[in-house]
Amino acid sequence: MGALLALASAACYGVFDFAGGLLSRRAHFAVVTFTGQIGGLLLALVAAPLVGADAVGTADLLWGALSGAGSGAAMHFLNRGLSRGAMSVVVPVSAVTGVALSVLCGVCFLGDRPPPTAWTGIGLTLPALWLVSRGDGSGPAGAVGDGLIASAGVAVQYIGLAQADAASGLWPVAAGRVAAVLVLLPSAGRHAAEFAGPPARLLVAAALTGAGAALALALYLRAAQEEMLAVAVVLASLYPAIPTVLGLVFLRERLGRARLTGLLGATVAIVLLTMG
Questions:
Q1: CA–CA separation, 216 vs 233, rounded Å?
Q2: Does the pLDDT value for residue 212 go beyond 90?
Q3: Contact 123, 247 (CB under 8 A)
């Protein structure tokens, strides 16, 4: 059941990352990111009391808040990268590094013991990322850098939320959405004028993408409570397949040979990590 929940989380993330990427090309990325977190917060505040909780400890809320801080930072840089680079490059870069960091943290601090296939996958991330970052003129290097920075936030998001106790229900997700909004407030303030530009329907769409991301986090939280961190993270991190394929098919994105080789390596790395 935990594996299915993690895969459902990946499906949600993939679809809503693609939608957020499209919106970040029609409005300023800071507007899309902040409005999305507001939408996620509203959904979490409605869902948490409905789901209920046996016991919500301070530690659960703090872990949720740490996860949300990572999530807010990840979405800031991810949407900035998507606004100026190909989805088929930025999203996989953010995911594969986030997976490797999460697995390493599980091994070093949480007692996880992944098999050799997982270690092989981690080893593949470095050459894969070098090829994607090196590129061959098929996209801006800054977008790749944004993806790499976002990956650190992805790792914090997954690791933090996995530490919340199952008895706390969805309240760690709600605490995370509050933290994400607070983390993004300075950026929203610097770009306050941009909020007056987009039409209302675009802001509503951005809020819905954030609500979808919050749903993905809720599914991941349940998955992490039933599986070891390494398994839940790698399955949830299969989400790049969706925006990558959608970007190639519907946006006609093109990849040079070096980046294509790097992305194939990143895909193999994620599959090997999943096999663990």
A1: 12
A2: yes
A3: no
Cα–Cα distance between 154 and 104 in angstroms, integer?
Answer: 14
Residue 132: pLDDT over 70: no
What is the SS3 string spanning 93-136? HHHHHHHHHHHHHHHHHCCCCCCHHHHHHHHHHHHHHHHHHHCC
* DSSP code at position 26: T
Task: Give the tokens for residue 36.
Answer: 């999305």
The whole-angstrom separation of Cα 57 and Cα 219 is 20
Work out the angle at residue 134's Cα, subtended by the Cα atoms of residues 247 and 272, and round it to the nearest 5 degrees. 65
User: What confidence category does residue 273 fall into, taking pLDDT thresholds of 50, 70 and 90?
Assistant: low
| Cα 13 from Cα 98, distance rounded (Å) | 14
Name the residue among 149, 171, 151, 147 with its Cα closest to residue 161.
171
Query: For residue 190, which amino acid is it?
Result: R
The answer to whether residue 124 scores a pLDDT higher than 60 is yes
pLDDT digits (tens, 9 = 90+) for 45-92: 999 999 988 999 999 999 999 999 999 999 999 888 888 766 767 777
Residue closest to 41 by CA, chosen among 180, 236, 188: 180
Distance CA 74, CA 71 (A): 5
Residue with token string 């994620």: 270
What's the rounded Cα separation, in Å, for the pair 53 and 168?
5
Return the structure tokens found at 207.
């809020």
Please tell me the predicted confidence (pLDDT) of residue 129: 65
CB 107 within 8 A of CB 114: yes
CA 183 from chain centre, in angstroms, equals 16
Dihedral angle of Cα 7, 10, 12, 16, to the nearest 10 degrees: -170
Report pTM.
0.82
